[in-house]
Design goal:
alpha/beta, 5-stranded parallel sheet
C-alpha cells in the first residue's frame, strides 16, 4: 500500500498506574515510525478480563486514551490522534474503529499494528469486519515482538488466541452485513450485554 489513510493500534492492556503495557508501547512506537501525516487511531475502552486502573480522581482509565497520551508525549500532534472508548475485545476494536472513525471520515487504506501473539486473530477479525457490506477497505498488517510478557503468560495467551480464532470461523461464515454484526454484538456478545462476563484464567490475565 503506497499511501495510508490511517494507522490503527488495537488495545492490549494497562499497567496498574494507568500507562500502556510494554508490548503496547512497542506497537505505539512502531506506529510513530510508520506514520507520515495520517492519523493514528488507538482502540479499546479496556477488557472484561480485569477491572481498569483508576486515575488520581477515581475515574477509570481507558486504554485508548492512555495510548493516545503516550503518542502525544512522543510528539504526534493531538489533531492526528483519534481514539475510541467503546470496545472491550478485538471484534469490538474493529467494529467501533469502523463505525466511529473510518466510515465517517472515509479512511479506507489502513495499517493495523499489533503484537506477534495477537496478529493472526487481529488479521482475521479486521479483514472480516472491514469487508462487511461491500466496504471497499484496503488493509495491511504489521507485527511487533512480544516484549515484556513472561513465558508462562505468553503460552497461556497463545492458547486463548488459538481457541478464539477457531471460534471466529462460525461468525465469519454467518455474518455478512454490518447491521447483522451490530445485532449479534449487542444481543449475543457477553462483553456488550448488561451481565458481566467471566474473567479469564489467571495465567493469561496479565496479557490483557
Amino acid at each position: 500500500m503506497e499511501t495510508l489513510d490511517a494507522i490503527l493500534v488495537p488495545g492490549g492492556g494497562l499497567r496498574p498506574d494507568g500507562s500502556p503495557t510494554e508490548w503496547v508501547r512497542h506497537r505505539l512506537d512502531h506506529a510513530v515510525r510508520r506514520r507520515t501525516r495520517e492519523p493514528i487511531i488507538t482502540l479499546s475502552a479496556g477488557t472484561t478480563h480485569k477491572a481498569p486502573p483508576l486515575d488520581r480522581d477515581g475515574f477509570p482509565v481507558f486504554e485508548s486514551v492512555a495510548a493516545a497520551r503516550y503518542l502525544a508525549d512522543k510528539g504526534v500532534p493531538p489533531a492526528s490522534l483519534l481514539f475510541e472508548t467503546s470496545s472491550y475485545d478485538t471484534i469490538g476494536n474493529a467494529y467501533f474503529a469502523r463505525t466511529i472513525h473510518t466510515d465517517p471520515r472515509g479512511l479506507r487504506r489502513l495499517l493495523i499494528i499489533t503484537s506477534e501473539f495477537h496478529l493472526a486473530r487481529v488479521r482475521a477479525v479486521f479483514e472480516w469486519v472491514f469487508s462487511l457490506s461491500d466496504s471497499g477497505y484496503q488493509l495491511e498488517f504489521e507485527q511487533v515482538p512480544n516484549v515484556g510478557i513472561d513465558d508462562t503468560s505468553l503460552a497461556a495467551r497463545r492458547r486463548r488466541e488459538r481457541e478464539s480464532l477457531a471460534n471466529l470461523a462460525t461468525l465469519t461464515g454467518s455474518i455478512k452485513e454490518l447491521p447483522d454484526l451490530h445485532r449479534w454484538l449487542f444481543t449475543r456478545h457477553a462483553a456488550y450485554l448488561p451481565t458481566r462476563p467471566s474473567p479469564t484464567a489467571a495465567e493469561a490475565a496479565d496479557t490483557y
